[in-house]
Amino acid sequence: MPSIHLDLSVQDCLSLFPQTLPVFQQFGCHDFDDPQVREKLGPFVKLRTLLAVRRIDAQSFLDRCHERLSPAPDQPEPGDLHGAKPTLLALLPCGLKVSLDRALYDFSEELARGGAPLAYLAEGNVNHELSYSPYIDAVESVDELPDLILSSDINGFYHRRFLERFLAPGHFVSVNGPMAPRMAEIGLADPKGHFTMFCTNALVVVRVRDIKPHVPTPEAWADLLEPGFHKAIILRGQNDFFCSAVLTPLFRLYGRAAVERLAANVCDGLHPAQMVKMIDARAANCPPLFVMPWFFAQKIKARERVEILFPREGAFISPVQLLVKREKRAALAPVIEFLMGRTLHQHCSDTYFPTPHPEVADKLPEGAGLFWIGWDFIYDNDLERIKKELGETFTAEYRRTGGGTCN
Q: Which of 117, 138, 160, 180 gives a 20 to 30 Å CA spacing to 82?
């Protein structure tokens, strides 16, 4: 009779042994009640990783699972399962999720017709049920990780534990070629050759002209720290979370005091789609300033009301990066070629996600700059600690100064 072991994926466990679902439920893993979560995220999460993240005693879990097994001699051993192995995990910014998912679907269908199926998961950052992020810091072996990982933001793949355990030994290799001039200027290519930079999510300032017209239009990120913008700004965020893609580069430029000063000027946190809706609906509590991705700024219908600003220091860029397992690079060459090809990158650029592809025309306004926090900052610092401390600093000052309501 086949057995359940920690190297089994969640999907394989629940597919081979559906009678173990109540065990997952007993230990509080209710997200896998959803068949979609089991099918999409399940292949990418090993039991050992799931149990480590949820702080569940592995032996107790396995014992409970084995109690529910019934003899099934015709059932295949987990190692004998056929079909596509989990290959590509794509955790995408909202503006790219739909279009890239469609492109990946068409490409995977083409591969399947040639007898080489591609198993992938493409999800947006806002879909927390299908998020892989909570599992990153619990992965122990490179074999637990997908062969290709496309992700957005300065996330857990930049944390010191991941850098030391998986990047420093050389498990992942960059497949970037020459960089587009704008990206070369800001040093976007990873000098250590681990991360492949796919594209960037540029954060801009949107000024609503007819709200508090006496308030000056900012020209630089530093201007947003001035007392004259008290409770006049909305950032991406909710409850106690605010976008580290703004806080981290601000800290890099101007230090911790700048994060506190910005917090005093932020009146609320919203998803960018909510910001667009607030502006277009002419909401009564709409503030004059928003910080949002360039992609979402282009979605504003009431264009006569707004001015899209690229601050003097440059639009803060949040990276979209690809991790490629060194040992899989040759075998996955067709997939890598598709991901890094001109067609897909022109689409990113046309959708207002600047790309480093050297043959792609960008849509950046003349004179608009980009600001990247820099690889020296990434490799020389514990970004997990920095982001946590900046988040706590910002939230404390935001609350102290009456955040949560825009006047």
A: 138
